[in-house]
UniProtKB/TrEMBL annotation:
Name this polypeptide is given: Oleosin
Organism phylogeny: Eukaryota, Viridiplantae, Streptophyta, Embryophyta, Tracheophyta
GO biological process: lipid storage; post-embryonic development; reproductive structure development
Family assignment from sequence similarity: Belongs to the oleosin family.
UniProt gene name: LOC108852620
Subcellular location: Lipid droplet; Membrane
Parts of the chain that traverse the membrane: 30-56, 68-101
Native source species: Raphanus sativus
Main location: other
Amino acid sequence: MADLQQHQQPMTRNLHDSPSSPSTRQTVRFLTAATIGMSLLVLSGLTLTGTVIGLIVATPLMVLFSPVLVPAVITMCVLTAGFLFSGGCGVAAATALSWIYRYVTGKHPMGADKVDYARMMISEKAKELGHYAQPQTDQTTTAPY
């Protein structure tokens, strides 16, 4: 029994102290990346669906009330615009996910230094405002009665 406990302790210690386990910051970055990417992919799918539904509804009206060539041109323009926009949203989502993945894994993609600089400036400003707001809250809470 004691021999079994000796073998289990190093395994649990290795699992918890592993340097490859993700930090909280990496987890938050991943969840943010996944949320942004999924939102863009959903937008792409909704655009494609809306384009197809619009074509289904509009095509019979255009055919009934216009000559044959005008609705065909309009339909082709709407179809092309819808597919280009849908594809563009898909490419934007894939590019954003790829960039965020490279940023989270530490590969320093283009523009990562600007993101780090902005984060540093925001944290400094938040510290300044926190120090500024602290004396004011002390003054308001210590009013004599």
